[in-house]
From TrEMBL:
Family as reported in the entry's similarity comment: Belongs to the glycosyl hydrolase 1 family.
GO cellular component: cytosol
Organism: Paenibacillus typhae
GO molecular function: beta-glucosidase activity
Protein name: Amygdalase
Pfam families referenced in this protein's UniProt entry, alphabetically: Glyco_hydro_1
Domain of life: Bacteria
Catalytic site positions: 364
Length: 471
């Protein structure tokens, strides 16, 4: 039996400004934290942008977006998730007035989407904190960021009212636990960052996120505003109750973010964690009320699941999407060591829905792989990416299962629908796209675009409302 996805299901793809736009210093854009991280999370931060930083050029989407949106439309996209580069709107982050050229770029981009009936889904902050806010304020550790973010978000809601209906406040907000610079613009090296400062920064982001929900609804009552969580289901490595509790505790560290966004209060297990770790969150008057502005929907990324154990001797560490855990002996891994678990997606959809009873949106999922460009039968270059088709097919079958389970799912945006620069390793050779981009890690390439085999496959999946998926 193949599941027919609802006609209202929002099929599409996802990207982030800093990973594909390029044009890092054009039209008044300021520097962001990404412009000084040439090796992603694997290497040091530079003083100034350096030529080996692939993100400075990205895939030149800033100048080629019309061609790319046309290709997305050809696949039948109903939604396109991208982010706004904060530094195009407020180059330093603490200005009082926005940069008109930056605002105009996104106006044009969203108009281009609407031309094809594609709904934009916009992340307000996706790993691109203005560098000035990072260096001068230490990023989200500083309470002042709440005000800067509020001004930025208010500018966006006002400008794009009626043009953007779906908003996400912070990309993978829980990733700050592991990548405080990339995720939270925190300049203090993570080895030196205290838990006190980390959780205070998290509090500021949670307050900022709830503020965005509040003002977004005031400015545009039709806007739907969601949070975005890095989901990574954590299974106990064995049935040993020690492992079960270790897995539960590890899940709590991440559920915390969804719990505050969806329920509007700090959960008891976090209060205990704060007590036991000597953390005291400084709350300003009004914060508790602001947090009650809960999100309209929960969105999340899903790539891998991990295991947890109470016994460090039985741990075989695996790689993961910014987080890692104990390896699952039943699963295979991608070329980058990320363990592939399609059923984990059904599991996480059910877990979130049982917990929150709010609509869910899968806004990232996909396989990073090395592709080989070949000449197709028609003489046009292409990629036979059957491995990617299999990965996506198997995950979408599980989305169908979750729909059958009664989970309310708004849509699915495949990550990196066009090849772009990887967030963790800053490589272009880690490709996710349905569209191949001729650009390479050594900075060579024509930037030409070619349809991969998966392009036609995804087009078919969308056209048949998922009925072409293979069980
Ligand atoms: C998520 C990020 C994305 C994206 C994706 C894939 O963590 O939200 O920005 O890049 O993971 O990760 P990577 O690019 O490291 O392969």
């Amino acid at each position: 039996m193949t599941v027919k996805f609802p006609e209202s299901f929002l099929w599409g793809g996802a990207v982030a400004a800093n990973q594909l736009e390029g044009a890092y210093n054009e039209d008044g854009k300021g520097l962001s934290t990404q412009d000084v991280a040439p090796q992603g999370i694997k290497g040091p931060i530079t003083e100034v942008p350096t030529e080996d930083n692939m993100k400075l050029v990205g895939i030149d989407f800033y100048h080629r977006y019309k061609e790319d949106i046309k290709l997305f439309a050809e696949m039948g996209f109903k939604v396109f998730r991208t982010s706004i580069a904060w530094t195009r709107i407020f180059p330093n982050g603490d200005e009082l007035t926005p940069n008109e050229k930056g605002l105009q770029f996104y106006d044009d981009l969203f108009d281009e989407c609407h031309k094809y009936g594609i709904e934009p889904l916009v992340t307000i902050s996706h790993y691109e904190t203005p560098l000035h806010l990072s260096k001068q304020y230490n990023g989200w550790v500083n309470r002042e960021l709440v005000g800067f973010y509020e001004r930025y978000a208010r500018t966006l809601f006002t400008r794009y009212k009626g043009k953007v209906k779906y908003w996400l406040t912070f990309n993978e907000i829980n990733s700050i636990l592991h990548e405080p610079f990339m995720s939270g613009g925190i300049y203090t090296p993570k080895e030196q960052l205290s838990k006190q400062d980390l959780y205070q920064a998290i509090h500021h982001e949670l307050v900022a996120s709830a503020t965005a929900v509040k003002i977004g609804h005031e400015i545009d009552p039709d806007a739907q505003i969601g949070c975005m969580i890095l989901s990574m289901p954590t299974y106990p490595l064995t049935p040993n109750p020690d492992d079960v509790i270790a897995a539960m505790k590890s899940e709590h560290m991440n559920y915390f973010f969804g719990d505050v966004h969806a329920r509007g209060v700090y959960p008891g297990y976090m209060k205990r964690y704060f007590r036991e770790n000597g953390i005291e969150i400084h709350m300003e008057p009004g914060d508790a009320d602001i947090l009650k502005h809960t999100v309209d929907f929960i969105s999340f990324s899903y790539y891998v699941s991990i295991c947890e154990t109470g016994d460090d001797n039985s741990r075989n560490q695996t790689e993961g999407n910014l987080f890692s855990g104990a390896a699952n002996p039943y699963l295979e891994a991608s070329e980058w060591g990320w363990q592939i678990d399609p059923q984990g997606l059904r599991y996480v959809l059910n877990m979130f829905y049982d917990r929150y009873q709010k609509p869910l949106f899968i806004v990232e999922n996909g396989l990073g792989a090395k592709d080989v460009l070949i000449t197709g039968e028609d003489g046009v270059p292409t990629v036979n990416d059957d491995y990617r088709i299999k990965y996506l097919n198997d995950h979408l079958v599980q989305v169908g299962e979750a729909l059958e389970d009664g989970v309310e799912i708004m849509g699915y945006t495949a990550w990196g629908c066009i090849d772009l620069v990887s967030a963790s390793t800053a490589e272009l050779s880690k490709r996710y796209g349905f569209i191949y981009v001729d650009r390479h890690d050594d900075n060579t390439g024509t930037l030409d675009r070619y349809r991969k085999k998966s392009f036609y496959w995804y087009k078919d999946v969308i056209a048949t409302d998922g009925q072409s998926l293979q069980r």
